[in-house]
Amino acid sequence: MPVVTIIWITEGTWQAAVDAARTLAPPGAEFTLLHVSGGEAAGAAHAAFAGLLGRGGRGRRDPGDRLEELSEAAAEELLRAAGERLGRPATVLRRRGRVEREVVRAAEDADLLICARDGDRERLGPHSLGPAARFVVDHAPCPVLVVWPREAPGLESLPPPPPPERH
Amino acid sequence: MLNTVVAGVVSAVALLSVLAFAVARPRRLPEAVAAVPAAALVVAIGAVPPGRAWTQVRELLPVVLFLAAVLVLAQLCDDEGLFTAAGDLMAGTCRGRPERLLGGVFAVAALVTAVLSLDATVVLLTPVVFATAARAGTRPRPHVYACTHLANSASLLLPVSNLTNLLAFSATGLTFARFAGLMALPWLAAIAVEYAVFRWFFRADLAAWATPAEPAGRPRLPVFTLVVLALTLCGFALVSLAGHNPAWAALAGVLVLSGRALARRRTSVRELTGAANPLFCLFVLALGVVVKGVTDNGLGAVARHVLPGGSSLPALLAVTAVAAVLANLINNLPAVLVLVPLLASGGPGPVLAALIGVNLGPNLTYVGSLATLLWRRVLHERDAEPALGDFTRLGLVAVPATLAAATVALWVMLKVFGG
């Protein structure tokens, strides 16, 4: 049975996830490139336009509509670039909705989910995993491979050990 | 003639209907379709005597014509590629670091809002910012949110930055340059606080390195357009100093740019008329008459008791808070029409504080007012608005902080330079 592997493609960090799939996924793995559009940006633009009370005359285009088109095009482009970088046959899966929930749902029948960290890498600790990645790691129905978007930090990133307890 | 209470109630119902219609826009009918009959109604029942309604329309007409000129100016700048050039400029600042792009977006959105009004930022700049973020390979959310937030919080600087400012401008008794001078520090304070909040709130998105995109090449700046825009800005200050309406300077800028664009067949009279949005102008005039009916028949007397007088810091903060709440309950357009006549006798301080409230307040609710939000929820239930929680959390942090910072800054300016 081939290992069904989902690669979660996100802006800014997708290259690391694709590279990990190429080097770390077992031979014969079956790849799916997954992108989820949250729609927040277009939603915010729709809302800002609605807040301009009375300006919705004819010929005045709601910028949210334009953002939806642009966001479709950007997602297509991202998946195309990811497929090219992967260099192997892959299924493309596009979803819309709450990003972290859609990723978990998409991983229902998967054997492996590969994603990149998206948190704050200046301060390693709980926040070095962003909210969406944190949710996915907590709820994924399959093993998750979390990779660093750039080179992994060295051992010098270990915080000083806590002081020994006195008895 | 009806008694005051009945006239007040009828006017209030008329106002709420006008606002509901403007939000719902059944069959995408223009907002004026409800506002004009409502204005006729409040005049017909005697809530606003015809003479007073006419005075209101005459006072508002130059204001809406000024706004129309600024809207056309923004469209002409877009036609000449100014916003595309701004996108290239922002992409140039990014160089793989999303937080640098955020800085660029803040600078450009603050300037566009101040000079070409918040409409330009929302309608023309937001798509450019999204495209720039996508091209740079960064997550678009912080940058697009920055645009929608700055459209409100960077609209304090000039009378032309926001229709609310234009509506209040003559009541402040200030010249164009003096208005800008007093509001410069509140403007900067609001932007600085927004920036700090954004860097913290979106730290995860901003930490994701962008793909170093191919260099965008030197942006092609529309020099002629920029020069005309700069001259128009100087014109605002000079014409106002000479005691005339600065709208004339806007008109001059529009004539120069539209003359050139028409001669080069880059636009048409039809497109320019569309950009001026004449039905919106009509809507504002009618809305002004309906609001008059509400304030003249009860609300004004009540509000006078609630609103504190003077330009002390607590008084200014109270006015800002009342204005922000009102802007969130109804919308900042009717809010400013209600508040300005009540505050005008107190000098520029309270009026400017009210502007801070009505301009920054709308960032609290997703669509600029609670009423709009509720209506949209009722009407578009199928539209799952995923960002609602995030956006509201962002507003809960940013709005009180920007309101306080900007009002304190205004108080400092009034102390140092006097009203």
From TrEMBL, chain A:
<protein>
    <recommendedName>
        <fullName>UspA domain-containing protein</fullName>
    </recommendedName>
</protein>
<feature type="domain" description="UspA">
    <location>
        <begin position="15"/>
        <end position="147"/>
    </location>
</feature>
<dbReference type="Pfam" id="PF00582">
    <property type="entry name" value="Usp"/>
</dbReference>
<dbReference type="InterPro" id="IPR006016">
    <property type="entry name" value="UspA"/>
</dbReference>
TrEMBL record, chain B:
<protein>
    <submittedName>
        <fullName>Arsenic transport integral membrane protein ArsB</fullName>
    </submittedName>
</protein>
<keyword id="KW-1133">Transmembrane helix</keyword>
<dbReference type="GO" id="GO:0046685">
    <property type="term" value="P:response to arsenic-containing substance"/>
</dbReference>
<feature type="transmembrane region" description="Helical">
    <location>
        <begin position="394"/>
        <end position="414"/>
    </location>
</feature>
<keyword id="KW-0472">Membrane</keyword>
<keyword id="KW-0812">Transmembrane</keyword>
<feature type="transmembrane region" description="Helical">
    <location>
        <begin position="32"/>
        <end position="48"/>
    </location>
</feature>
<feature type="transmembrane region" description="Helical">
    <location>
        <begin position="180"/>
        <end position="202"/>
    </location>
</feature>
<comment type="similarity">
    <text>Belongs to the CitM (TC 2.A.11) transporter family.</text>
</comment>
<feature type="transmembrane region" description="Helical">
    <location>
        <begin position="60"/>
        <end position="76"/>
    </location>
</feature>
<feature type="transmembrane region" description="Helical">
    <location>
        <begin position="315"/>
        <end position="344"/>
    </location>
</feature>
<dbReference type="InterPro" id="IPR004680">
    <property type="entry name" value="Cit_transptr-like_dom"/>
</dbReference>
<keyword id="KW-0059">Arsenical resistance</keyword>
<keyword id="KW-1003">Cell membrane</keyword>
<feature type="domain" description="Citrate transporter-like">
    <location>
        <begin position="26"/>
        <end position="348"/>
    </location>
</feature>
<feature type="transmembrane region" description="Helical">
    <location>
        <begin position="223"/>
        <end position="241"/>
    </location>
</feature>
<dbReference type="GO" id="GO:0005886">
    <property type="term" value="C:plasma membrane"/>
</dbReference>
<dbReference type="GO" id="GO:0015105">
    <property type="term" value="F:arsenite transmembrane transporter activity"/>
</dbReference>
<feature type="transmembrane region" description="Helical">
    <location>
        <begin position="247"/>
        <end position="263"/>
    </location>
</feature>
<feature type="transmembrane region" description="Helical">
    <location>
        <begin position="275"/>
        <end position="295"/>
    </location>
</feature>
<dbReference type="InterPro" id="IPR000802">
    <property type="entry name" value="Arsenical_pump_ArsB"/>
</dbReference>
<dbReference type="Pfam" id="PF03600">
    <property type="entry name" value="CitMHS"/>
</dbReference>
